[in-house]
Amino acid sequence: MNVQQEYLKKLRTPEEAVKAVRSGDWVDYGWNACAPHALDKALAARYRELHDVKVRGAVLMKLPAILTVPDTADHFIWNSWHMGGLERMLVDEGIAYYIPLRYSELPRYYREHIEPINVAMIQVAPMDEQGYFSYGLNASHLQALFERTETIILEVNRNYPRCCGGDNTRIHISRVDMVVEGGDPPLSQLPEAQPDEVDEAVANLIVPRIRNGSCLQLGIGGMPNAVGTLIAKSDLHDLGVHSEMYVDAFVDMSLAGKITGSKKNIDTGKQVYAFAAGGQKLYDYLHENPDCLAQSVDYTNDARIISQIDNFVSINNAVNIDLFGQVNAESVGLRHISGAGGQLDFALGAYLSEGGKSFICCSSTVTDRHGVKHSRILPTLHTGSIVTDTRTNVHFLVTEYGVINLKGATTWERAERIISIAHPDFREPLIRDAERMKIWRRSSRR
């Protein structure tokens, strides 16, 4: 039987395919843009006969149909590896929960710790002539997921980019249980975060500290985008990319001729990533682009791999920071808003790199819905806040008021440096807090 014949043999309607799901099952939707469309609608239509179906995924880019049915929590529960805006809302509604992880370990979680995985259903690009489907935008952990899944269902979408990658970024028709043709809806897009004045100020502090030939990892949000925009307009050249997430800013830098990857010690000339999310320009750029290489996250985020790349620069965001140097990038007190992702992976790997630097960025303040301004730099993290990066792992901290290095600093030096990049309105209260906490030298007060 040739691959086309096997494809036709396994072709089903969405309604037929989702009959594989039973009450109590664990179902995996993959990440962001690869979440199913037609299959999701068909599964939602069965809600009356299904109870306690537990669905895994991450970074939702649109609200799944299964989470809009009446009495949702009785039928479907969302379990997220990484929270986006939609998932925060779902947590507040009691129909979503976070799964703590260190992102580089995720494939191992699936291979060794998670069971059962009853059904996996994701969107993919059309099958190629050899019978392979590309994981495309979500190489991440899907190989490990499919190794352990009882029933694999692929939803083919002709708008889904076919991304270049190794053997662990594709699956052959012989390993698939069912194929669905879902009507080729447009892919969900992640709006490009527009930098504000603070983001641009932070970017202006970071970019001068990047060398020609450096290799970049960017997180999501306005600050990383501001860095990318500034680099695209700069004189920097021969930059490389090795990132868990491929974002729009990399496309801008590539089109501006700033990225060649020629100085990378490994994967020379290739832009390496675990998953991608952004706008149409990103999807178009990645489609069959041999300069971009999708890889499993246990490769992209392995600190031992990152450390082999000289002049590695990691740039990520934080929610708040305390005077000990602890970084929270996941919650506002008890309210979960994001996830650990690979921030710690890259903080560790970048520092191990020859000439490497890790930057954790945040604005000095945040204004609440009542118009009251609050410091993002706190004496200690609020009750319930998550420590994403321990104080021993933080290299550079950046706000619009400056850049500080915490490596090798005593507790009083840390407090002094951290307060120096706080908003001026909050520095005196923070000094009083530091004195109370016994981490302030009065002789160092200015």
Describe what you observe in this structure.
α10 links the parallel β12 (240-246) and β13 (271-276). Helices cover 28% and strands 23% of the residues. The model has no long low-confidence stretch (mean pLDDT 94). An 8-stranded parallel beta sheet has the order 1-10-8-6-2-3-4-5. An 8-stranded mixed beta sheet has the order 14-13-12-11-15-20-24-25, sandwiched between helices. It is globular and about 80 Å long. The chain contains 16 helices and 25 strands. The protein is of the alpha/beta class. The protein folds into 2 domains: 3-181, Glutaconate Coenzyme A-transferase (3-Layer(aba) Sandwich); 197-444, Acetyl-CoA hydrolase/transferase C-terminal domain (Glutaconate Coenzyme A-transferase), CATH 3.40.1080.20.
Indicate the proportion of strand residues: 15-25%
CATH architecture of the largest domain: 3-Layer(aba) Sandwich
**What ranges have pLDDT less than 50 throughout 5 or more consecutive residues?**
none
Straight-line distance between termini: 80 Å
CATH homolog superfamily of the largest domain: Acetyl-CoA hydrolase/transferase C-terminal domain
Specify the CATH class of the largest domain: Alpha Beta
Secondary structural class = alpha/beta
As for the CATH topology of the largest domain, it is Glutaconate Coenzyme A-transferase
Compute the average pLDDT: 94
**What is the rounded Rg?**
23 Å
Query: What can be said about the biggest beta sheet?
Result: 8 strands, parallel
What form results from the Cα inertia axes? Answer: globular
Number of domains: 2
Number of strands: 25
Classify the helix fraction into a percent range: 25-40%
**What is the number of helices?**
16
Strand order of the largest sheet: 1-10-8-6-2-3-4-5
